[in-house]
Specification:
Helix content is 50%, strand content 11%. The longest helix has 28 residues, at 103-130. By secondary structure, it is of the alpha+beta class. The strands form four sheets. Strands 12-14-13-15-16-17 form a six-stranded mixed beta sheet, with helices on both faces. Among the domains are: 6-91, Alpha-Beta Complex (DNA Primase, Chain A), CATH 3.90.580.10; 102-237, DNA primase DNAg catalytic core, N-terminal domain, CATH 3.90.980; 458-588, DNAb Helicase, Chain A.
Length: 593
């Protein structure tokens, strides 16, 4: 992976004042030495989002998000680290050096770039074709489907000609090597005909990755040819289980949820109607790769799969996959229409927004699905259904959620609540999984950072001490002879300790600079919280010294215990002696600042 040098990143960071960057998207008011505004990452009525010009950091006291200017841009724009650095460099008028790469990387990167530019040229070719006499029928088809010219343009829709090697010929003329055209997935090769176009007589949908690069195509045949839809096969740039159609636009949506639908046309018509949060999987079922991609942007997915049997089956498969990535799912009902495209055409976007808002909890969708082929007036079918419901409820691990769902299901399906409750308890005891539901399924809402419970207060001591170290160089100077970064517990505390020690040793512990280390790290907000925490003022010098001494002893003791318990292959006797000696030394330390 190519990367920028640390100095470059630090320069980009320091040339973008955080108050200016945040202030361009959040209305900030000055209060004391900080600025406050409404948090852009959670909804609130009073501003608990603070920005410090002095520290060059932001922190939200409401939702706990925090970091430096790079992590702000990543979070706000849904950018990757590299993209955020690039964006900020542009903003500051800096020209970034090329990211560093090894020669092999350069070579592979070169070929990859050739493939990408070949795909881009092909997209241009197809787009122009749409407006040629040959493409008239395809253009009319798109207009008949209700697409505006600007929509056709923004999605770069096109038409592949009727000849058998038109695109190949064009691309060769553009200077692309046969190897590149083949690797781009744009041709078929046969002994008889040589290289021919993979796509012909099709409306072309360029597929873009999240950086707006064309990585493949979907093509819908004009007329009755087979298959109706044809996609680019997997290539070095196109991996359909890790990309989603429309995500290049949808990722920037400010809606708290994303809509997942079945096809290209659904995405396009939703975007045209203003629902730019819609994406589709690319001619494949929803995969774990898709869930992993989506969770970068949301933990709330609304499914609008076709109301036919195939669509409902697809939704049933997507629900547990999302759940296993901590994504909640809801189902948007479109009846009496088949898909979002039809729905919006018939009833308009306001009605569609209502359906989005009324989206049904996917658990009830599952129950309805279980009911589908059963006759509820038949006692046997009814019993079977109720048992399936009980089994499914039994699979919910969170007790409160389970209890609520039991009540709701009992009311909805007119099952006696106490009977249902007992049935659920029996299934839980048997530990039977629900039918067709993987056991990864859970309906509890995962809070992003659940603090571990902390038995001896060590965790709190470590955190407090780090906050103090970050705040005051003198504390670092006094503490460093007693504590190594390794004395802090694994995780965010140790990472932050390493970063702070390193920063002080280099002379300039720029906290905002340190935060860059955490930008791509799940501990980013927690680290920011630590260095932004407010320290209760300790008044007298002797109180300060005592507090600091206590903290150091507490942290060191815990470190020694960990060392003793660690299965590190060292002689236990030797370890015990070392510990004893270290503990004795601890008794004598007196730290003052
Ligand atoms: Zn917030």
């Amino acid at each position: 992976m190519a990367f920028y040098k640390d100095e470059t990143i630090e320069e980009v960071r320091s040339r973008n004042d955080i108050v200016d960057v945040v202030g361009s998207v959040v209305k900030l008011k000055r209060s004391g030495s900080n600025y406050f505004g409404l948090c852009p990452f959670h909804s609130e009525k009073t501003g608990s989002f603070s920005v410090s010009r002095q520290k060059q950091m932001y922190y939200c006291f409401g939702c706990g998000k925090g970091g430096n200017v790079i992590s702000f841009v990543m979070e706000y724009e849904n950018y990757s680290f590299q993209e955020a650095v690039k964006y900020l460099a542009d903003r500051a008028g800096m020209k970034l050096p090329e990211p560093e790469e090894s020669p092999e990387e350069k070579k592979a990167q070169g070929f990859r770039n050739d493939v990408l530019s070949c795909l881009k040229s092909a997209a241009v070719f197809y787009y122009r074709r749409l407006y040629s006499p040959e493409g008239k029928r395809a253009y009319e088809y798109l207009k008949k489907r209700g697409l505006k010219d600007e929509t056709i343009k923004s999605f770069g829709l096109g038409f592949s000609g009727k000849g058998h090697a038109e695109a190949v010929t064009y691309l060769r003329e553009q200077g692309f090597d046969d190897k590149v055209i083949t690797a781009a997935g744009l041709c078929n090769i046969s002994e008889k005909y040589g290289m021919t176009d993979r796509f012909f007589n099709r409306v072309m949908f360029p597929i873009m990755d999240i950086n707006n690069k064309v990585i493949g195509f979907g093509g819908r045949v004009m007329g009755d040819g087979e298959p109706k839809y044809l996609n680019t096969a997997e290539t070095i740039v196109f991996d359909k289980s890790h990309n989603m159609y429309g995500l290049n636009v949808a990722r920037r949506s400010r809606k708290p949820y994303r809509i997942v639908c079945e096809g290209y046309m659904d995405v396009i018509s939703m975007h045209q109607a203003g629902f730019t949060e819609a994406v589709a999987s690319l001619g494949t079922a929803f995969t774990p790769g898709h869930a992993n991609l989506l969770r970068r942007y949301t933990s709330d997915v609304r499914l609008t799969y076709d109301s036919d049997k195939a669509g409902q089956n697809a939704a049933m498969r997507a629900i547990p996959i999302c759940a296993s990535y901590g994504i909640r799912t809801k189902i948007i009902h479109m009846d009496p229409y088949k898909d979002p495209d039809e729905f919006i055409k018939a009833l308009g976007s306001e009605e569609f927004q209502k359906r989005i808002d009324e989206a049904e909890n996917s658990l009830f969708f599952e129950f309805e699905y279980m009911k589908r082929d059963r006759d509820m007036s038949d006692p046997e079918d009814r019993t079977g259904f109720q048992n399936d419901v009980a089994k499914r409820l039994a699979a919910i691990d969170d007790e409160l959620a389970r209890d609520n769902y039991i009540g709701a299901a009992a009311a909805r399906y007119m099952i006696k609540e106490d009977i249902l409750r007992r049935a659920v308890a029996v299934y839980r005891e048997k530990n039977e999984a629900a039918p067709d539901v993987p056991d990864t399924m859970t309906y509890e809402e995962k809070s992003p950072k659940q603090k571990k419970t902390d038995g001896g207060g060590y965790d709190k001591a470590e955190r407090y001490l780090l906050t103090w170290i970050a705040d005051d160089r003198r504390v670092y100077d006094a503490v460093k002879q007693y504590l190594e970064p390794e004395d802090f517990s694994e995780g965010v505390t140790k990472e932050l300790a390493v970063a702070l020690y390193d920063g002080y040793e280099r002379g300039d512990p720029s906290l905002a600079g340190i935060m860059t280390r955490f930008a791509e790290n799940e501990n980013a907000s927690e680290a920011a919280a630590l260095v932004n925490a407010h320290l209760d003022a300790v008044e007298t010098e002797s109180d300060r010294a005592k507090a600091l001494t206590d903290l150091v002893i507490k942290v060191k003791k815990h470190a020694l215990e960990r060392m003793k318990d660690a299965d590190d292959g060292r002689d236990p006797l030797k370890k015990a002696m070392e510990e004893k000696k270290a503990l004795k030394q601890l008794k004598d330390i007196r730290i003052s600042i």
